[in-house]
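Journal club prep, shared notes

We agreed each person brings one worked example of a sequence with its structure written out as tokens. Mine is Sugar phosphate isomerase/epimerase. I'm keeping it raw so we can talk through how to read the token line rather than staring at a rendered picture. Sequence first:
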Amino acid sequence: MPGQNTAGHGPFGPLTGIGDEAAPGADGQLAALRRLGWTTVELRNIDGTALADLSPTAFGALTRRLADAGVTVTAVASRIGNWSRPITGDIGRDLAELDVLAERCAALGCRLVRIMSYPNDGLAEGDWADRVLARTAVLADRAERAGLVLVHENCAGWAGDRADRALRLLRAVDSPALRLLFDTGNGVPYGYDAPAMLRDLAPHVAHVHIKDAVRLPDGSTAYTLPGEGEAGVARCLRILADHGYTGALSLEPHLCVRPHEGLNRAGADAADLFVRAGQALAALLDHASPDGPA
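Then the structure, token by token:
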């Protein structure tokens, strides 16, 4: 089966993906994984509800469904510090979400929790930075005590689109509970060269999202199958391999579901597109030249 992978691909760990990009419900998400031969998932939403907001009954049903399917959870994509939570908001929302996820990640056997670093909301640059650094330190301390690792994504927020800021965040927080998540496709919509950024960040990367995209003439972004866009996915994979990254590669194709644009629920064709994207990723890995330029 094209795209089949249960143990790892080349130097990398398992191929996985954010399930709600394939289908809203757990059954549809697991069905898409089965079509790819994948046995891990990254969780974000179930039937439109964030993992932290599921009722205890719904969460219990999800854990049983995953166990019955033999599927493990590699990471949780939280809303902490994301595009919907500016730096002027109440940190209490993020701490409460983290506390719930600490319990749920323990039940799922998962340690990685995706975070971002808070969009600005009219603050001066220095004030924004100070608040982000202080707030992330609080979150990392709580995560460390819970046995979790927060992985900061190169997306929305103070440290999202600049390597120097991401490295400053790591230095300032100085915690084993804070690492980086690198998304190969975010450079296109945010206007930076992803492979160039990754060269500086690769030693600190603990999780990877895979997407690809092109910039349209009007300045908007269109998402593509991995390897068919302008994000430099193959170059990113070579850089990661060269730096010894052995973690999972998690598919987040954004072909049908783009929460930051209000597209929150996968439609009828989402599973097929998710599977095509997974197959494209596997093909890209199979045909990548280890000797090519990074």
